[in-house]
Amino acid sequence: MASLLSRGDVVVCPEGTTCRENYLLRFSPLFAELIGEVSPVAVHADASMFYGTSTTPIAKCFDSVFFLMNPMPEYSVNFLEPVHTTGASSSIEVANRVQHILADALWYKATALTMKDKYSMLAGNEGVVATNRS
């Protein structure tokens, strides 16, 4: 990622949630350690009937199909003001600030839960996909 940034390319660091509820999971601070400015983009996928939020690895590949099965699937994209990371006391502080900015834009509640916490509660594992190879 650092080499892409040094060339001036755009790097996307997906963060957020795949929950049906309006909660935003805690962000990893790694993105804030690499650059001096973060341009948050709030993306909301609205579903009325079918939700693409599987927790099992096999069913996960069908999430986009479920979303497109909705009678009126809708995406909304909101480009927000850049957040400068220089001068911040830590990358964790920057990640928390970006999380709260995105949560406010989406009308979500920012939480301290991580992806590991989410999978522990929903699927009984830590989000690790075990493979059985013979």
UniProtKB/TrEMBL annotation:
GO terms for cellular component: membrane. This is Phospholipid/glycerol acyltransferase domain-containing protein. Signal peptide: none annotated. GO terms for biological process: cutin biosynthetic process. GO terms for molecular function: glycerol-3-phosphate 2-O-acyltransferase activity; phosphatase activity. Transmembrane segments: none annotated. The keyword rRNA processing does not apply. Keywords: Membrane. It is found in: Membrane.
